Amino acid sequence: MSTTNPPQLFLLADHIKLSLLERQRAISLNLPSTSQDAQISRSLEQLRSGIESLESQTADADDESISSQLPRLRTQLADLTSQFSSSTNPATTSTATTTPNDPSLAPDFSAASSKKPRQPSKSVRFTDSNDDDQAQDPNRAALFPYRDDPDPDAAPDHTALSNQQIHDYHSRVMEEQDDQLNELGMSIGRQRELSMQIGDELDGQVMLLDDVEEGVDRHTAQFTRARGRLDRFSRKARENWSLTVIVVLIVVLVLLIVITK
């Protein structure tokens, strides 16, 4: 990455200053101080390359906004290089290292210049969203009923209890939880048995439906065959209707002759 304007170079110089202050503080606290040396060296080389790039720009075309900042940048580069290359004695820290170019970085410089090590937090507490947010959104309160902050009224006051009483209390709570888990396990077992019975009943119903389907198919086939026979008889009757009429008339004539005798 090449930095070709003074504001970026001043910002890079501030980051180098912070790194040097952290390095000096590590030395004062007898901590390893060489972990950032490679990064500081690369940043100094980048700052030097940026200044050379600005010098080449002003050589080609004079720019007052750039040329007026070059002496200050060269001075800071020399101070930072000297500070980095000097002895590891914290007392060699110069005012150029402790003064930021950007006033907004003053708190960071003040913290980095402090000789006191950062104290770790004694306790870590993760908090959920505000109660006001949950009060405004009842759906969220229903979805997230648990909180990392314990409710002081949810458990009895243990300050007046002895260790044995506290142990007995927690043992009783664990026994109650075990009983609840056993009841839950029994309920799940009953639900499993009921589900198996429902599955068996469904299998039986499927078998009955298969039998009904087979009976319907069988009776449908029989009905189809009977309908075919009726159609054939009807067709033959229409073809031989004249012969049938003659036979019927002959039978009637015979009956009349027999009756008249």
Largest sheet: none
Strand content: under 5%
Number of helices in the DSSP assignment: 10
Shape annotation? elongated
Order of helices and strands: HHHHHHHHHH
Decide which structural class fits the backbone: mainly alpha
Helix content: over 70%
The strand count comes to 0
Mean pLDDT: 76
Distance between the termini: 141 Å
Q: How many structural domains can be distinguished in the coordinates?
A: 2
Taking all Cα atoms into account, the compactness measure Rg is 51 Å
Query: Low-confidence parts, pLDDT < 50 over ≥5 residues?
Result: 87-91, 120-128
Could you write a compact summary of the structure shown?
One of its GO terms (biological process) is Golgi to vacuole transport. With 261 residues, the protein is mainly alpha-helical.
How would you describe this structure in keywords?
mainly alpha, 261 residues
Outline the secondary-structure elements.
Layout lengths: L5 H23 L8 H24 L3 H4 L2 H16 L9 H4 L7 H8 L17 H6 L1 H6 L19 H77 L1 H20 L1
Helix pairs in contact: 1-2, 1-4, 1-6, 2-4
Report on the architecture of this protein.
With 261 residues, the chain is an all-alpha fold. The protein has two domains: 6-113, no CATH class; 168-256. Helix content is 72%, strand content 0%. The chain has helices at residues 6-28, 37-60, 64-67, 70-85, 95-98, 106-113, 131-136, 138-143, 163-239, 241-260. Helix 1 packs parallel to helix 4 (70-85) and helix 2 (37-60) packs antiparallel against helix 4 (70-85). The longest helix has 77 residues, at 163-239. It is elongated and about 160 Å long. Residues 87-91 and 120-128 have low confidence and may be disordered. Pfam families: SNARE (PF05739). One of its GO terms (cellular component) is membrane. It is a single-pass membrane protein.
